[in-house]
Fold each of these.
Amino acid sequence: MVDMMSLEEMAKQELKKLESENRLWKEHRLESPASSWSVVDGTKQLMLCTNDYLGLANNEEMKKASISSTEAYGVGSGAVRVISGTMSIHKQLEEELAAFKRRPASITLQSGYVTNFGVLSTLLDEDDLVLSDELNHGSIIDGIRMSRCEKVVYKHNDMDSLAEALDRANPKGKMLIVTDAVFSMEGDIAPLPGIAKLAKKYGAITYVDDAHGDGVLGENGRGAVNHFGLEGKIDIEMGTFSKAFGSVGGYIAAGEYFCEMLRNKVRAFLLSGSHPPSVAAANLESIRYVQKNPKLLKILWSNTRYFKKGLRSLGFDTGKSETPITPIMIGDSGAAQKMADELFKEGVFVIPIVFPMVPKGAARIRTIVNARHTESDLDFALGKLEKVGRRLHII
Ligand SMILES: *Cc1c(COP(=O)(O)O)cnc(C)c1O
């Protein structure tokens, strides 16, 4: 064992460095359910920072499904999936999820992070080449790193850059193009038709992370691939239950043999405990609920349009966003942090997005409206944004 004091000293230095770079994490405490308004650190806040697009995190039907599953099957599955931790509810979820995504099969894992990390590192090896959008999520980057395959990063959403990279590529093994469907810091959508076309031309596998597309885009929230009419034209669809679906869990929807191969090879599936029945039941209810309640999606989008229009007419720069994720571009990390702090004092909870989540000088406030916000909630937020934005000379 090293001297405990020296370990503490090392950690303290690390924290100081993060603080000097405006990267120190401030933990806020949620003291009520995640909702359109929540109690945070003892104060009532209008929530513009959750990923709970449809308000399912605290939805009555979701809660009922989760509670009744706990009563029937207990709080834990008892093992990893491949030992005895596969319950009927896990299989039922995978079947209905595959049908929802209109794919032959699906496999669920503990989280979206675990899914990208585990599946990409399983699928790719040293002989393979991956082509990855420069703004892809960290879980994709980590999965690629773990695989030790060759990686080419193409310019964000730039099909000329992707085509160039494909043209130059000559791997011993397979080629895979991987992209977020909706980019979590920009709110823009990947040009999936262009990607599918290039993939076909060059014989590359396509992998789409639909974390922010599921429940938000497409018919009844079926996601980005449905939105573009590309069902059956993307090889591997990945998603999460931690965003619009209100709970937790990651998944792959793809071909039957492919999912069966993952069941036998992804180490998180083999070595880490499966979801409690309450989680699987909530996830199952979420995909049923979005299909039964298309109105929620309509409200989400009318709120999105209303809020974006409001922001732009106040003079804020909202970047290239096309979805409910709307960044307010600030530039300087310190200024973005200050703006978030001031808004919090005014009762609006947003988070600043700073380096290394976005490039240096591209700091921003990220806002996400949800289907539970009312027009007066959004007016409240716009009023506070105007007040703070003017005070800090951002508008
Ligand atoms: C949130 C997110 C993930 C991770 O999902 P979790 O289920 O929260 O682990 C993966 N990819 C993208 C693009 C995300 O936004």
Amino acid sequence: MSDASVSALNAIKSQVPATTTVIAVTKTVDASNIQPVINAGHRDFGENRVQEAAAKWPALRRPDTRLHLIGPLQSNKAAEAVALFDVIHTLDRPKLAHVLAEEMAKQSRRLPCFVQVNTGLEPQKAGIAPQDADAFIAQCRSEWNLPVVGLMCIPPVNEEPSPHFAFLREIARRNGLDQLSMGMSGDYAVAVLFGATHVRVGSAIFGVRT
Ligand SMILES: *Cc1c(COP(=O)(O)O)cnc(C)c1O
């Protein structure tokens, strides 16, 4: 079981450029099943809920672990998120930007942030609308001095992902951002073709979530 996760992760790493960060997504995965992947030397892990991460990661993490928040963040959890995580992939609205900036200043921690863009304009999905992305990125920089490093998207489940990846890349390019968090178990190889610098892979490493 654990060996299978390490082998699966190594196979994925061998298929992507060395410069692409493979984030092993550990939501719903028990600490005992994460441990072998940490022992194998992997550093980048993703969780989508602050509470679950707070329960698992303080005991698991090593000094060089990078924990990525890849799920929606409520403003009232920003303080905890800044203390616990190393990278935020889901910055998507002014209120959150404001609170994150305050917390980073308070805690003297500057976490690289990805702005999440709702490329499919799905009403139930988080992310800034594409037409508001340029203004929001500019505001994050000028008003809150946030370390915005790139963009993140989750394409609609039943659509061809490549137009969404191309769209995200274009928004990043015109805003001078060179990091792209896109691609999951089913489409990371396609995402890499479109310039993904970070792929977020869960079930292809740890098996199907129950
Ligand atoms: C769960 C999740 C992933 C990983 O999904 P898999 O299909 O299991 O690889 C990637 N990104 C986000 C935002 C997620 O919530």
Amino acid sequence: MEPKLFTPGPLTTSRSVKEAMLVDLGSREPEFTDVVAVVRDELLALAGSSTRDGHEAVIVQGSGTFAIEALLSSAIPSSGRLLVIENGVYGARMLRIAEIHGIPTASLRCPSTRTPDLAALERLLAEDDSITHVAVVHCETTSGILNPVDEIGEIVAAAGRRYLIDAMSSFGAVPLTFPSSGAAAIVSSSNKCIQGVPGFAFVLLTRELLDECEGRARTLTLDLHAQWKGLAANGQFRFTPPTHVLLAFARALEELAAEGGVSARNARYSALQARIATGMKELGFEAIVPTEHQSPILTTFREPESERYSFELFHAALKTRGCAIYPGKLEDTRAFRIGSVGDLTQEDAETLLRAVAQVCAELGIDRPQR
Ligand SMILES: *Cc1c(COP(=O)(O)O)cnc(C)c1O
């Protein structure tokens, strides 16, 4: 049996999304370039904008990190400075990418169960005028915490800096638009909340930021402006595109619309997350992120102290019952993560909770809250 993925992505996709890949299209055929054009327009629409309104969508081959690296290494000059608001591994990764490309950095760090101190951000921007760009992760998938991207955006806009958002694990399921956030760039990928399969990522950005990228890239393959130029000129990629993945993604976008768009998807994921958190609590598992900061995307639970517990055994036993969960770790806290995203239903959440109860009994795992 194929297990349901209670993971942050790749996640469980519908059969119809997978079936959309059963076609071989040439990358230069109009049937394919038409799909790419529709996908780019619809991504901008999801972000509350359009090319007419001054925004562009650039698709980048590879996983989500490739698009983050394309953005940072194309948009920020060596004379600039990137401030990363950091409360998890994805924030830390942006710093690492910037360092590799010789981009000066600064970081505003806070524990992974807390959202950033906005007054400290305001002070930092007022004091350090070398900071030109500010980046934050919307849903930090390290913990499942949701960062206040719109409030941060107000501060960044008031300070006149460029605002970059890693919305990888939230885009399509947690409301985020250019108008609401004041973002200069929003990044996400094919295999997260839009429920496509892995293979590409995308940068949605203002025309202004895109223009600044011209001639600034430090790599050939991740040159955002050159990539856009190809797509804008004739709908083609500079290098082999993941044709099947794009077909699946176009199908996934149709299914998102059929479900009722971002708000309906948000409601389904929120209900799944709430059921999983409540059910796990009844089974003696403590969620680590405070409820007021918890995203609908994924929940982090403290691991039982019980010596009968190991993640490997727990994971394997759940998997034989049709549920795949995800490892995790927060600072010094041993933890595991359960995603509430993908083509999952409330029935799947019940199956997972039954499986956890059975596995705890079978392995004789004592739980802290019991
Ligand atoms: C998934 C994810 C990424 C990208 O990870 P890849 O493994 O490169 O796809 C980046 N940021 C966040 C917050 C994510 O959840």
